[in-house]
Amino acid sequence: MVKKVSRERVALFEERLSGAPTEETLDLSPLVSDDDVWPVIEAMFKDFRHALGAQQTESFDNFIDRRIPLILEAIGTFTVFGPDSSTKVKLMITNPRLLSPRYKDQHGKSRKLWPSMALSHNHSYLGNLIVDIHYTNIKGEVNVYEDQVISSIPVMIGSRWCTTRGKSRASLLKHNEPLDNPGGYFIVRPKAEDGVAQEKVIFVY
User: Fold this and answer.
1) Which pTM value belongs to this model?
2) Under 8 Å CB-to-CB from 180, ≥6 apart: which residues?
3) pLDDT of 142-161, one tens digit each?
4) How far, CA to CA in Å, does 196 sit from each of 53, 66, 132, 168?
């Protein structure tokens, strides 16, 4: 349960945190009771694997789902000049999508890349970022090139694009994946890299 806090109370609380003098004594009566805290703790122990890495994986999911499209939307249409600076074309990039990590076997067939496989074969755990490119030539004609790969992005273990997400215990064991892996880190050749999580107080008005 989330308790709503008045703006005045938040202002007093922020002044107390900053050390600034306040004219009014702040009532620090519990905003969160034991009845509010224990359900959260019990939920963490019920699914600790998800809870330990959820802060990182949900942040990564938000970055891919919302931040990248917002960045591309803010850029909008941009102009690319030729060698003589007089020739120019316009480009606009839309509809970004991240693909789950894959690799090609010895027969050239594309297969899912599992985190344990990436570690054992010294591969980075990457997914291709594909977009649609709107190209306007010097005559003003517009062509759309769909599903163009413009980059490869490290995929966070346990995120929506991770091969292990939503898989059964049997499937994880079959591919030598640890059952208690909380995720929240990247595999960038030749080792696993942890992300630095940052916490910030968020008030609900």
Assistant:
1) 0.68
2) 49
3) 999 999 999 999 999 999 99
4) 12, 20, 32, 28
